[in-house]
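User: Predict HTH merR-type domain-containing protein's structure from this.
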Amino acid sequence: MTLEQLAAQSGVAADKIVAYTKAGLLPCKDAHANFSADDQYWLDMVNCFLENGSSVEDLKDLMPLCEQCATN
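Assistant:
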């Protein structure tokens, strides 16, 4: 799906998704590529952490570990 489609489905503004992608918080590392259902799952997880008080800086360390655990 496109960035705009992901934004519409997730309720997260496209500019925030781009920022999260650039920060390395989503498996898709290119904000202009097509996003998958997996990317939407990770975006939902990022939003959950942020809504519960984590910062983007906190997640820069945490999300790669989560991705690594998910692939093992």
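The radius of gyration is 11 Å.
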